[in-house]
Design a protein that fits this description.
four-stranded parallel β-sheet; Rossmann fold; 11 helices; homotrimer; 11 strands; about 325 residues; 2 domains; alpha/beta
C-alpha cells in the first residue's frame, strides 16, 4: 500500500509553532497514525490526559463542542466504536447524528461521497467514519470541508484505537520509548495491528508480530517490525502483549487460515501458564470484544496484568481529544 | 423461583434513617418489586408524584441528572419501554446511549456481562436493561458498580410497569390498601402480572388472577393471590381490572394455549356488556400495546373507566423517580 | 383527490391579525401546502430566512424549543428527511425521540393511531410523521393534541420539501412570481412534485410537468399545470428545472413504465448538451439522492446552475421554521 495514496492533500503544513512558540495543532482530519509525527501523537495523548479528568467528575460534561454537530457515519457496523465516539461527543456538549448504511439511500445506489456531502450540507462539523474500504475516509477528506476522523477503514488503519492503546501503555508503564511490544493474531486483516505498529514505532517502541503464517504476511516486515510464529519464544522478551480478536470465519471453509479453534488457542492463546513465563509487569491488552477461552483465557483477561477495561475508558478521553483538536483546527 | 436467587448482594441495608430521621433511599439498583418494602415502594411513588409536575411545564426539563449517562441496553426489543426511559432520562438532562443486541458484538459471541462491563468502562452511570432471561439484571448488578434498572427480564419482573400501574391506581382511586384487583390473561408468561401481584399485595391490595387453565399456572397461588377461570364471576367484585396483552403466538401450532382468538375474546375479553356488570368506578388498565377487539374492545379501551393513556404518562414520572433515586444512592 | 378530505379540522381560522396588526401564525399542524395561503407560505419562508443565520454561527444552537420534545415517527424509511428534522430540532435545543416501524409494536398489530397516542402520552409536543399512506398525518392530526408535521405521506404531499425548494428558488433567483418551472420525471408517484406544483402556483409561478406518458397522468392537469412529453421543447422556456429521482423499480417487470434506464436517460435525463440550450441562469434542482448518469449527469449535478446541496442546507432552516411556528401555535 502506497503511503502517499491516503494522505490528506490539504494538511500540507500540519504542525506550526504558535506565536508564543507553543505547539499548534493544524490538522482538520485524523485519518491515520501514518501521517502523524511523533510530536503530533504525543500532543493528542497529552490533550487526552487533560480530558480524562472530565470523566471522573460527578457532572461529566464540558462545553468544548457546544453547538457543533458530530456525524457518526457507519458504513460498517461497530457498536462499541460508535458508542465511544457518541459519548465522547456528548461529553463535550456536541450534538450527534447517526447514519448507518442499513435501510438508507446507500442501498439506493447513491455514492458514498454524495451521502457525505449531503449530510455535510445539513451542517455537520465533524464526520466520524467507519468504512469497509481502505482509504475511503482519505478520499472523502479531500472532497469535503468538514473534519474527518477515521474510525476504521478496511484493513488499513483504526487510528483512535492505536492512540488509546499507546495512551494506556504510557499510563501503565510510564513510557513508550524503548519498550518491546508483541501483537498476536490475525495481523493480515487487522487495522488495529497496523495503527499500533505505526504509532508504537514512531514513539520509539519495538514491535514484533506473532501468529500462524496464514495470518502474518511476510510483507508486514516492510513496516519495520519483526515476525515470529512462536508465541512462547517471544513472550518472555516483551513488555506489552496485544492479543487481537480472532474472527470465527477464519476457521471455516476451504480457505480456513487454521485447522481448528482449539489448536489456535493452544498455539497462540494467552493463558495463565504462558503468563508465568512473561516479565512480571507485562501489560496484557485486547481491543475487544474478547473471545474468552480462545485468544485469551478468563483468568488472564480479568487478571492484574490486563488493562482491557482501562483501554475502553481511555478510548473516551482519546476520542474527546481528537474531536476537540480537529474541531479547533477547522475553525482556523 | 427462589426469591433470594435474584437479590442484589450489595444492597443489604437498603433503607436507613437519615440524620434528621427522614427516609433515605440507599438502593443503587431497582431489580424487582420483590426486594422492596412497602415503605420503599411508597417512597418511589411519592418521588414520582413530585416529578409528574415537571412534565406539565412548558419547559419540560430539570437538571437533576445533568452530566450523567444512562445506558439503555435492550437485549430484547421494546420500543415503548425504551422510549419512556429515554424521555425520562433526557427530561432530567441526562445523556443517553442506546445499545440493542442486533448487529452488535452480542452476535459475535461476547458474553452479556462483558458487553455491560465494556459499556460501563465508557462511563455509563445507570443501565436500563431489558433481557430475555429471567434474573439477568440481577446477575449483572452483582458484577458492576453502575446502577441497574430492570426494564423487564424474561417472565420474571417488570418493576417500573408494576410501579406505574400502582401509581395510576393510587391517583385514580385515592388508595391501594383494601382494593381488590383482577389481572386477566396470560399470567404464566407475564412479568407485568408478577410485578403487579407483588407490588399490590405489599401495599395491601388483594389480587385475583383470571384466565384459561393453560395460561394460569396453579403455582401462582404461592404468590398469595387467588385464581379464577371465570371472568364474569370475578368482575363484579373488583375495583381494578388489568387486561394483559394476548400474544398471537399462543393461538397457533400444536401447543396452542387456546382454541381460537375469537373464543378467547368471548371468554376473557373485556367489552361493554361485561363492563355494565362491574362496579361503577372500576378502573380498566392495560400495559399496551392493545389488541382492539381481542382482550379489550374499543368502546372499553377508550371509555371513561380506562386509564390506559394515563398509565403511559405516569410511566415517565415513575421512571424519572427511579433513575433519580438510584443515581442518588450510587453517589453515596 | 378531494381537497377537503385531508384538511385539519381544528385549523379553521389559521390566520389572524395580532393586536398590533402583524401576521400571526395559528396553525398547530403542517400537513400540506394544499391548505396554506400564499401569505402563510411566505411567512414560513421569511421565518426560515431568520433561522438560516443560526446555522452559520460557530455555536449553531438557539434555545427556541428547549424543553420541548420532537417525536420522529418514520413508518417508512427516510434517512435524509429524518436527519434533517432531527438536526433542525436539536439546533433549537429540543429533545428528539425516534420511532421507526421496524421491530416495534406496529408489527404486533397495534393501529397507527394507538401508536401515536401512546407516544403523545409520553409528553411529545410535535410529531414529524412519514407514512406510506396518503392522508395518514391528516387523520392523526384530527385525533391528537400534539402538533403534526407531515414529512411525506404516500404519493400525496411532502410539504417541507416543497417549501425548501421554493425557498431555494427565491434565494437564487430573487423571486418566485412570474417564473416558469419544469418538474421532470415520475410525476405520477411523486409527493415532491405535488407539493412543488401547489406551492409554486400559489406564489405565482407557472409549472409544466415533463415525463413519459406512463409516469405523467393526464389528471395532473386538474392541478393547474401543463403537461409535456418532450423535455427538449420545454427546457429553453423555463427558469427552473427540478429533476425528480427515478425509482429503479419502475424499470423492471411486466408493468415497467419505461423500456430501459438508458433510453430514459436519453429522453429525460439532464446533461451538458441539454443545459446549453437552456436559459443561462436556469436553476437545476433535485430532491436527492441523485442517480448520477441517469436522470442527471455529474457535470450538471455539480455545475454552477445546480443548487442541489443548497437545497439540503435550506431544508434545515425551513424545518426549523416549521417546528418553531407549529410549536408557537400549539402554546396558544
Amino acid at each position: 500500500m502506497a503511503k502517499r495514496e491516503f494522505s490528506s492533500a490539504r494538511s500540507s503544513a500540519p504542525v506550526e509553532a504558535g506565536e508564543d512558540g507553543q505547539f499548534v495543532w493544524t490538522r482538520k482530519d485524523l485519518l491515520g497514525l501514518d501521517e502523524l509525527s511523533e510530536r503530533q501523537i504525543v500532543h493528542i495523548l497529552d490533550t487526552a490526559e487533560s480530558f480524562k479528568e472530565v470523566s471522573t467528575r460527578s457532572i461529566k460534561k464540558v462545553p468544548a463542542l457546544r453547538g457543533k454537530v458530530v456525524g457518526l457515519l457507519f458504513f460498517e457496523d461497530s457498536t462499541r466504536t460508535r458508542m465511544s465516539f457518541e459519548l465522547a461527543a456528548s461529553r463535550m456538549s456536541a450534538d450527534t447524528i447517526l447514519f448507518t448504511s442499513k435501510g438508507s439511500s446507500v442501498a439506493k445506489g447513491e455514492t458514498t461521497l454524495d451521502t457525505v456531502r449531503n449530510i455535510e450540507a445539513m451542517g455537520v462539523d465533524i464526520f466520524v467514519i467507519r468504512h469497509g474500504q481502505s482509504g475511503a475516509p482519505h478520499v472523502i477528506a479531500r472532497k469535503v470541508k468538514s473534519s474527518i476522523v477515521n474510525a476504521g477503514d478496511g484493513s488499513h488503519e483504526h487510528p483512535t484505537q492505536g492512540l488509546l492503546d499507546i495512551f494506556t501503555i504510557r499510563q501503565r508503564l510510564g513510557r513508550v520509548k524503548g519498550l518491546k511490544a508483541a501483537i498476536v493474531g490475525d495481523i493480515a486483516h487487522s487495522r488495529v495491528a497496523r495503527s499500533n505498529i505505526i504509532g508504537l514505532q514512531k514513539l520509539g517502541a519495538e514491535v514484533v508480530v506473532v501468529g500462524p503464517p496464514t495470518l502474518v504476511p511476510p510483507a508486514i516486515k516492510e513496516m519495520g517490525c519483526s515476525i515470529s510464529h512462536d508465541l512462547d519464544e517471544i513472550l518472555p522478551q516483551v513488555d506489552v502483549v496485544n492479543m487481537l480478536r480472532i474472527q470465527f470465519e477464519r476457521f471455516t471453509g476451504a480457505g480456513a487460515a487454521f485447522p481448528s479453534m482449539r489448536e489456535y488457542a493452544n498455539m497462540y492463546g494467552l493463558n495463565a501458564a504462558r503468563l508465568k513465563r512473561c516479565k512480571k509487569n507485562i501489560l496484557v491488552m485486547h481491543p475487544g470484544p474478547i473471545n474468552r477461552g480462545l485468544e485469551i483465557t478468563t483468568e488472564v483477561a480479568d487478571g492484574p496484568n490486563s488493562c482491557i477495561l482501562q483501554q475502553v475508558t481511555n478510548g473516551l478521553a482519546v476520542r474527546m481529544a481528537v474531536l476537540y483538536l480537529v474541531s479547533q483546527a477547522a475553525e482556523k
